[in-house]
């Protein structure tokens, strides 16, 4: 009798876990991850933050002593702190980044260099690059009269991870087939 009760409890628990995982997977296709990248030379900050169903999941990548460190928080509790190691790869990183297809991109750029010529060249380059990317909001403020060099860049976007993961898997298969074709 007690074995039957334990079996029923375990079955119910496993079913509940499967339902919760299925709901989370469906939510990956419906609710986007909000990302925010900050680069500030005056305060020596370079940080990438990703939020999904906040406060459920928050991931922060910061640079400490020149090494990228990943911090993951679940329900506001710190869970993981790990140094990200660079893997030698095939050089398809930009293709994977494009496959995420970020939406609602907002860029704030404030910069200035002690030489106004450098500020002008940077302003032209930034405006040229902004035409190549689908940007929702672009705030470009060059400072031609500054005494010191500084750059402040804040980029935020939304990424639907379900479709992004599917596109990345498709790209990996494509690259694997190309590699097999080359090796034969």
Key descriptive features of the protein:
184 residues, 8 strands, alpha+beta, 41% helix
Shape: elongated
Q: Helical stretch count?
A: 4
The secondary-structure element order is HEEEEEHEHEEH
Distance between the termini: 62 Å
Task: Identify low-pLDDT runs.
Answer: none
Order of strands, main sheet, comes to 5-4-3-2-1-8-6-7
Radius of gyration: 22 Å
User: How many β-strand runs?
Assistant: 8
**What value does the average pLDDT take?**
88
Helical coverage, percent range? 40-55%
- Quaternary state of this entry equals single chain
What composes the largest sheet? 8 strands, mixed
Q: Which structural class matches the secondary elements? A: alpha+beta
Strand-residue fraction? 35-45%
3D structure, described in words:
The protein has about 180 residues and is of the alpha+beta class. It has a domain at about 30-50 and about 90-184. It has helices at about 1-30, 95-100, 115-130, 160-184, and strands at about 35-40, 45-50, 55-65, 65-75, 75-85, 105-110, 135-145, 150-160. Strands 5-4-3-2-1-8-6-7 form an 8-stranded mixed β-sheet, with helices on one face. Strand 1 (about 35-40) and strand 2 (about 45-50) form a beta hairpin. The model has no long low-confidence stretch (mean pLDDT about 90).
Short characterization:
Keywords: Membrane, Transmembrane, Transmembrane helix. The chain has about 180 residues and is α+β, with helices and mostly antiparallel strands. The chain is built from four helices and eight strands, in the order H-E-E-E-E-E-H-E-H-E-E-H.
């Amino acid at each position: 009798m007690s074995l039957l009760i334990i079996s029923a409890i375990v079955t119910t628990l496993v079913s509940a876990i499967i339902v919760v995982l299925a709901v989370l997977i469906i939510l990956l296709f419906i609710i986007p991850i909000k990302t925010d990248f900050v680069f500030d030379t005056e305060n020596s900050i370079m940080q990438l933050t990703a939020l999904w169903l906040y406060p459920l999941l928050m991931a922060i990548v910061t640079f400490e002593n020149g090494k990228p460190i990943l911090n993951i928080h679940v329900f506001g509790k710190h869970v993981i702190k790990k140094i990200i190691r660079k893997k030698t790869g095939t050089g398809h990183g930009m293709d994977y980044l494009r496959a995420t297809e970020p939406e609602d991109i907002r860029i704030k750029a404030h910069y200035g260099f002690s030489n106004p010529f450098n500020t002008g060249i940077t302003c032209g380059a930034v405006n040229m690059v902004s035409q190549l990317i689908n940007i929702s909001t672009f705030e470009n403020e060059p400072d031609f009269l500054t005494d010191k060099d500084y750059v402040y860049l804040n980029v935020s976007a939304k990424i639907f991870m379900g479709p992004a993961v599917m596109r990345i898997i498709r790209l990996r298969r494509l690259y694997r087939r190309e590699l097999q074709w080359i090796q034969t």
